[in-house]
Amino acid sequence: MDGETERLTDGDFSVIQYTQSPDRSRTAMTRTSSPLLEFSHLAEVWISDAAGGDARQLTSGNRVSEGSLGISPDNTQVLFRAGANEAMEGYHNGKLFVVPAACGGATRMVTPAGAAYDMSSASWSDDGRAIYFVANMGVHDEIFRLDPATRTARRQLTEGQHSLAGWTCEGRAGRFVFVRQSPQNPGEVHVAPVAGGDARTGDARLRRPGHAISGGLAGGAPHVEEAGQADGRGAALFYPIGYRDGQRYPLIVATHGGPASSDQFSFGHDAQVYAGKGYAVLKPNYRGSTGYGDAFLREMSKGYFKQAHLDVLAGTDAVIAMGVADPDKLVKMGWSAGGHMTNKIITFTDRFKAASSGAGAANWISMYAQSDNREFRTPWFGGTPWQADAPIDLYWNHSPLKDVSRVKTPTIFLVGAEDPRVPMPQSVEMFRALRSNGVPTHLYVAPREGHGWRELRHRLFKLQIEMEWFERWVHGRPYTWEPVPADGGKTAQETSTPSQRNR
After folding, report:
1. CA-closest candidate to residue 95, choices 176, 19, 153
2. Per-position b or e across 298-323, b if 16+ CB within 10 A of its CB
3. What's the gap between Cα 140 and its chain centre?
4. 226 to each of 256, 318, 319, 374, how far by Cα in Å?
5. Read out DSSP for 77-140?
6. What span, in angstroms and rounded, lies between the C-alpha atoms of 82 and 479?
7. Which residues of 85-116 are buried (b: 16+ CB within 10 A; e: fewer)?
8. Of the candidates 192, 164, 161, 168, the residue with the CA atom closest to the CA atom of residue 179
9. How many CB atoms lie within 10 A of CB 186?
10. CA–CA distance from 469 to each of 8, 161, 163, 430 (Å)?
11. For a pLDDT cut of 90, what percent of the chain falls above it?
12. How many CB atoms lie within 10 A of CB 284?
């Protein structure tokens, strides 16, 4: 059949992901009714023979999205990852489960009891007696070996100030392959033995594609450290290039999206630029982040902004107390959930001299219907806004728009014209409110873009329009835009400027 393809599945469903057994005789997959995100919680695990026949459903009756599938070497069990607890209830840190491959039925959690980390990629060992997995531990990722029979994480195989991506386990070769990223390097491909050893130090380096980038940074890469805080949360603090003890610097507080995610020891492309411009950058893991346990993640239940924004401000105060940040030169920024946080912060305090809100929510009531992602948000408010006895007051009381009259911080808003997750009207509502109340503001809408801006011209524009805004309101000085590569003979500004609404 060289050069030919054969369709193996057929039906009124979408295959979201699949994997084959080590002997290539079986295929495990997750199927749902639509590839759209809003149907992902309806996915279930199925298994079939390698030709797509004898398909059987192994999980049912839950409302969580399964992933990271793996068939055990003896073909008796299917491993999967889900953001759920032992009862398969959603909105938890990622955990690992196994289900019988022959008939499905009851799932069994194999995550170590009391584990606080978020488990992501996972794979069986070659003999099926162990499971290897990557754990998000807040500001860093690590690889563990797990005994599924006893639910014991028997060994941590890596340790360091790094994040890991693209991880895979080649059991028969006895090797892991992964990309290791650090604040000083945008990513290197590593090969390391499953027994540990070289994986701990990263000596098994394969390629260094990011070496030329990190080595070419003006002034070198910034120093980055974990800024620990109360309640077990952490933050990554990027020092400005050329930092000197005793000197205070403007501080950019950048909050991550999700919110079920975390900022880690990674290269941080934007942070590198800001550090080179003389700014310190704080990336705090506020309540709602992954890698710190389920209670920490689920604190947003029945009220999104109960504590998370106070965590961000506490982190800001901690960096001021360290003597690093100038309390009179603070900046707030973020995208997606980081944009939600920015919208909340500017309605809560006027301590920040400038802000940039990317794809942020203004009104949780209208957002619920506009967005393509509702299932995950329902726990934040304990129900939908259109059910009988809907918790409308809770939705509204946690909406930044409710308190927008308090905003004094000059703020720009950025959003994609085709964003399905946090649609453009959310940014329009905030922008029009600030403009009506006389607060300096602009709205920038990138054509063709969805929830994350992908086109290089738009990403370059975002970085520079934010830098221009921060320089203006923090230092009172103009910013000179750096030239970007020409595109089809047009000027850099013509190629990098998204459409602007009511600038």
Report:
1. 153
2. bbbbebbbebbbebbbbbbebbeeee
3. 13
4. 16, 12, 11, 33
5. EEEEEEEE-TT--EEEEEEEEEEETTT--S-EE-SPTT--SEEEEEEE-TTSS-EEEEEE-SS-
6. 46
7. beebebbbbbbbbbbebeebeebebbbbeebb
8. 164
9. 19
10. 54, 32, 31, 17
11. 50
12. 28
Between the alpha carbon of residue 74 and those of residues 26, 79, 143, 156, the distances in Å are: 11, 12, 24, 25
The predicted-structure confidence for 423-434, as pLDDT tens digits, reads as follows 999 999 999 999
Question: What's the one-letter identity of residue 71?
Answer: I
How many whole angstroms separate alpha carbon 400 and alpha carbon 107?
40
Radius of gyration for the chain, computed over Cα atoms and rounded to the nearest angstrom: 24
**SS3 at position 192:** strand
The residues with which 378 forms a beta bridge, in sequence order, are: none
- Predicted confidence at residue 487, as pLDDT, reads 52
Three-state SS for 330?
Answer: strand
CA distances 275 to 239, 251, 283, 379, Å, are 6, 10, 13, 37
Residue-wise pLDDT for 37-76, tens only, equals 778 887 889 898 888 888 898 988 788 888 889 999 999 9
Q: Binning pLDDT at 50, 70 and 90, where does residue 494 land?
A: very low
Q: Retrieve residue 7's tokens.
A: 């369709």
How far, in Å, are 80, 95, 120, 187, 200 from residue 195 at the CA level? 23, 23, 20, 23, 10
CA–CA gap between residue 284 and residue 139 (Å, rounded): 9
- Identify the three-state secondary structure at position 69: strand
Say how many C-beta atoms besides its own lie within 10 A of residue 379's C-beta.
Answer: 16
pLDDT at 215: 45
Give the C-alpha separation, 77 to 28, whole Å. 10
Any idea what DSSP says for residue 471? I
Q: Which amino acid is at 310?
A: L
Within 10 angstroms of residue 369's Cβ, the number of other Cβ atoms is 11
Sheet holding 26-32, edge to edge: 14-20, 26-32, 44-49, 56-57
> pTM for the whole thing?
0.88
CA distance 154 to 152: 6
pLDDT tens, residue by residue, 286-319? 999 999 999 999 999 999 999 999 999 999 999 9
